[in-house]
Amino acid sequence: MIEAVGIILNYRKKQPVLMGKQLVEKFKEKGIKVYAPQKDADALNIGGPYLTPEEGHKVHCVLTLGGDGTILRAARYFASQNIPLLGINMGTLGFLTEVEVSEIDNALEKLMAGSYWIENRMMIQAEVKRQGETIKQFSALNDFVINKGPLARLITLEIIVGEEYVTTYKADGVIISSPTGSTAYSLSAGGPIVYPELEVTILTPICPHTLGARPIVLPSYKTVQVRIVNQAESMLTIDGQNGFPLEKEDEIIIAKAEHNVKMIRIKEKRFFSVLRQKIKNENYVFYE
Known about the structure:
Blueprint: E1 4-9, H1 14-29, E2 33-35, H2 38-44, E3 62-66, H3 68-78, E4 85-89, E5 99-100, H4 104-113, E6 117-130, E7 133-140, E8 143-147, E9 155-161, E10 164-171, E11 173-177, H5 185-188, E12 200-206, E13 216-219, E14 224-230, E15 235-238, E16 242-245, E17 251-265, H6 271-281
Parallel strand pairs: 1-2, 1-3, 3-4, 4-5
Antiparallel strand pairs: 6-7, 6-17, 8-11, 8-15, 9-10, 9-14, 11-12, 12-13, 14-17, 15-16
């Protein structure tokens, strides 16, 4: 019996907010409490108490209303609490979401009946060190990107995997992604498509000034250390949503996170069919 659910939505857009309010009423009719983080709750007019990661144990699962960006935000917010996410696509691409708007009623019926399965997705974490001290830590579902500032100047990055020196890139930056993130920015930069159930990290340089640089796939137990050798207003970007300014000689250590994201799946496994459909929708060619 589900007693409470959480909702995270793209509260900057009208349609997710309207749909969220409809879902709140549906859950109330069934005697199910609805919680949300403060900004989401304000958009839904449901007030407090607000849903925080520490209070995540109150809810059976979290529904996300939006696109992949909403899923990424929810993953970073709740993954450490092992709260499963059900993504409802109200965005554009929707690689990570599970159901479309037209499928919501059927999805809710299956959710109530417990007719679903859980897919675990690996997350990655980053530790920023400055003068030997840790100054910031982050987690991501898709990727961390270390890139240059707005001026057309290369950044120099030293790459160490585990304890072994790999190379020094002169490039626009580098992407370190999870298998989930392999179909995001890394794909656009020439990185490989990685099946999401694998536990690896992908190192993809962005426009390296060399003829020989290639993406590298690494086992998840290996750490990736990136040192800013020549700083050009560089930035660490987390899942394409949050940024942290970097300085010369900063070290960014990226590793597999201690927790996974739990994704509620109602349909059968269909990674390649989703990949074909989504990429075709974006006017790309993907050969079957």
